[in-house]
């Protein structure tokens, strides 16, 4: 396939053409030429006023549903959601059935990437069946193509197990990904503990459940000298602890979610919206502001959607019984852009930094494989009220104004034209 991208603003700090308007010619999945203007024949020409192009975006934490929970989402529908949201690389948690914990399960996910518009990167489980008791054969999974290791939506509770895992992966410079959640503290908490939880009458989960886990995991990472990525941080105190750890030389990185940037606990005052039942829970406005500051100063390395598909029965019920999580792949960029986060900070958090941390190649240079996201940054406000590519529809952002649209993704020889309105 021959693709010509016309008059796009290149956003790639590694490229000599960064912030310049260029034509890009792609043939059979490879960037063949970049110039001010190109006169070539192409099977597809992509041209929009104000078009931007960057290396393909990366989401480092998407909840796996296939195999085992295909009624929520398949790998094909997850890929469709990701591509429409501008992502060409997606990390999948191991919380499937069976759990991703051996070479066979790694092969299954990687095999699904062959014809997909996105590259799936499996996160291998740290413990067998993600039960937190016995280590898996992480080295075998790493050789087979696992991008990192963690028990996904289940934080490893045992310090002894986690320290062994950190030591294990250190032998091959692997990365452990961990959610900051001490489940022994207020295990029945449904939202942030505070005045709002009292007002709405829901049991709260205190900030200390996140703070203790982060403090512990930083200490273990420092002791082992291993690489640790903490995902889904939600507190001002978490940002402060991670900032201090980085200054002390701990090999740690972190990410937050779009919903922790867009919502606070007060959004639950207007009703028991089960799409806002997330873990870690929504926090205070002060916490949200600290997260935004952490993105600006680079303390927070990545923004990840924690995209979690839930069928209707898991969400159309009492808040107490609802499943955790929200969709987020299709709405991520529009949500972040509507919050007036600097476009360079957005791209750093969903593209450049995750690629650096997890050694994913992809720059806009002649001779490189095509791995691109094409988008508009300045559009009228719009809402993602329909045309979900997911099999599920639990999207907390459905009623929010979004700004900016993904036009297309190109990964090697696969072109995905966005189906969003």
Could you explain how this protein is built, in words?
The protein is globular and about 65 Å long. It has helices at 75-84, 103-112, 138-144, 159-170, 195-200, 208-224, 236-247, 258-262, 285-297, 312-315, 332-338, 343-357; strands at residues 2-10, 21-27, 30-35, 44-46, 51-55, 57-62, 87-92, 119-124, 148-149, 175-178, 191-192, 204-205, 227-231, 252-256, 302-303, 371-376, 405-411, 414-417. Helices cover 28% and strands 21% of the residues. Strands 1, 2, 3, 4, 5, 16, 17 and 18 form an eight-stranded mixed β-sheet that branches. The protein has a four-stranded parallel β-sheet with strand order 6-7-8-9. It has a four-stranded parallel β-sheet with strand order 10-13-14-15. It has two domains: 2-52 and 366-384 and 400-417, Urease, subunit C, domain 1, CATH 2.30.40.10; 57-357, Metal-dependent hydrolases (TIM Barrel, Alpha-Beta Barrel), CATH 3.20.20.140. The chain contains twelve helices and 18 strands. Strand 13, helix 7 and strand 14 (252-256) form a beta-alpha-beta unit. The model has no long low-confidence stretch (mean pLDDT 96). The chain is an alpha/beta fold. The relative contact order is 0.16. The two termini are 25 Å apart.
């Amino acid at each position: 396939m021959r693709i010509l991208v016309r008059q796009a603003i290149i956003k790639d700090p590694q490229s000599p053409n960064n912030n310049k308007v260029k034509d890009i010619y792609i043939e059979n999945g490879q960037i063949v030429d970049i110039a001010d203007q190109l006169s070539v024949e192409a099977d597809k020409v992509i041209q929009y006023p104000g078009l931007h192009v960057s290396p393909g975006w990366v989401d480092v934490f998407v909840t796996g549903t296939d195999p085992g929970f295909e009624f929520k989402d398949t790998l094909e529908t997850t890929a469709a959601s990701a591509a429409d949201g501008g992502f060409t690389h997606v990390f999948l948690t191991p919380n499937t059935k069976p759990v991703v914990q051996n070479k066979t399960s790694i092969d299954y996910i990687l095999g699904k990437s062959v014809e997909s518009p996105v590259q799936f990167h499996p996160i291998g489980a740290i413990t067998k069946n993600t039960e937190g008791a016995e280590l898996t054969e992480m080295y075998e999974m790493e050789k087979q193509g696992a991008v990192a290791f963690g028990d996904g939506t289940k934080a490893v509770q045992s310090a002894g197990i986690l320290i062994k895992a950190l030591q294990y992966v250190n032998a091959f410079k692997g990365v452990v990904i961990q959610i900051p959640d001490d489940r022994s503290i207020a295990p029945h908490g449904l939202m942030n503990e505070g005045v709002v939880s009292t007002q709405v009458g829901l049991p709260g989960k205190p900030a200390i459940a996140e703070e203790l886990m982060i403090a512990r995991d930083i200490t273990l990472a420092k002791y082992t000298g291993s690489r640790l990525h903490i995902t889904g941080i939600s507190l001002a105190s978490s940002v402060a602890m991670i900032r201090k750890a980085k200054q002390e030389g701990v090999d740690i990185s972190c990410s937050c979610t779009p919903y922790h940037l867009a919502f606070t606990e007060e959004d639950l005052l207007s009703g028991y919206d089960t799409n806002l039942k997330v873990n870690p829970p929504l926090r205070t406005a002060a916490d949200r502001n600290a997260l935004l500051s952490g993105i600006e100063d680079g303390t927070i390395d990545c923004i990840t959607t924690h995209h979690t598909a839930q069928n209707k029965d898991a969400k159309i019920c009492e808040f107490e019984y609802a499943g955790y999580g929200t969709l987020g792949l299709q709405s991520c960029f529009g949500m972040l852009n509507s919050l007036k986060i600097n476009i360079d900070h957005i791209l750093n958090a969903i593209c450049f930094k995750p690629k650096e941390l997890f050694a994913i190649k992809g720059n806009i240079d002649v001779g490189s494989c095509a791995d691109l996201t094409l988008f508009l940054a300045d559009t009228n406000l719009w809402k993602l009220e329909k045309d979900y590519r997911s099999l599920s529809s639990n999207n907390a952002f459905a009623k929010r104004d979004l700004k900016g649209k993904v036009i297309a993704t190109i990964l090697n020889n696969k072109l995905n034209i966005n189906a969003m309105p």
